Amino acid sequence: MFLPAVMMNGVLLFLIQTECSLHQPMFFFLAMLSFVDLVLSLSTLPKKLAIFWFGVTIISSHSCLSQMFFIHAFSAIESGVLVAMALDHFVAIFYPLHYPTILTPVVVIKIGGLVVLSGVGLTISFLCLAHFLPYCGLHMIAYTYFEHMVVVKLGCAITTVNSLYAFAVTIFLGVGDVAFIVCSYGEIVRTVMHFPPPEAHAKAGSTWMVHVCAILFFYGPGFLSLAMQWFGPLTASAVKVILANLYLLFPPTGPHCVWSQDQADMGIAVHNNNP
To answer: Which tens digit of pLDDT belongs to each residue from 89-115?
Structure first.
């Protein structure tokens, strides 16, 4: 799964960079998504392979915090990119004739910059809270990468602030982003169902299935893993470890690599049926 993730996302980035016809907002967000998945893969999967292949189970505290930063920052960025892609679809459906004037290159860059800054800014707080915790006893986790709540459970002090902050950020980013995506695609489905002919409905349905699968691949294991870490027992069960690994394995190899053609086809189909 690591090799296809790196190869597919690398090829996609190369095509979007070199092909001038792909220099559009939808492909810009798709390139951001591929880059984020590349970073998540390269920051976690090599260490996983080293653990399973060579038994390298030791990591320094600085490497631990660095990996935590990349995981949380780029996961938050990926969530924001999914929101931006939902916004792109919304504008393409409801304002097809004004699409180039609404999502101008400057606006798209601002949206991308806001997504990156919000993800990085919230993650730095995670690092600060985890860095100043006192740690004692055996510094060992049952997971193959370092997530904030997993590291916090190793601390000797009261970790209520860490837990509350992590919960608030998850609600703000995760639940808020999912709510926006659901509302956006709900309005799109309701509107497109009024467009003739029925073939357009079938094409739109197949397109949304790809999008829904990509969103579920990203949010599903993530929410389940976080819920089990917050409310589950202190010791990691096999289910918790599997979910934690799937959270970083599936999104990079998920169905977003076919979004580009689906987005273009959906936009053309709706544009042709829109008076």
So the answer is: 888 878 888 888 899 999 999 999 999
**Residues whose CB falls within 8 Å of the CB of residue 189, separated by 6 or more in sequence, listed in order:** 204, 208
Q: How many CB atoms lie within 10 A of CB 71?
A: 22
The pTM for the full model equals: 0.83
Alpha helices in the chain (DSSP H): 2-18, 25-54, 61-94, 99-102, 105-131, 148-152, 160-170, 176-192, 198-231, 238-249, 259-273
* Helix axes 176-192 and 198-231, enclosed angle (nearest 10): 160
**Residue 143 and residue 102: Cα distance in Å, rounded?**
44
235 band by pLDDT with thresholds 50, 70 and 90: low
In angstroms, the Cα distances linking 104 to 20, 34, 98, 251 are 16, 21, 10, 28
274 confidence band (pLDDT: 50, 70, 90): very low
Average pLDDT over residues 214-229: 70
Give domain 2-273's CATH number out of 1.20.1070.10, 3.40.710.10, 3.40.50.2300, 3.40.1190.20: 1.20.1070.10
DSSP state of 135: B
Using CB atoms within 10 Å of the CB of residue 257, give its burial: 0 to 12 exposed, 13 to 18 middle, 19+ buried: buried
How far apart, in whole angstroms, are the C-alpha atoms of residue 199 and residue 191? 15
- Name the maximum alpha-carbon separation found in the chain: 69
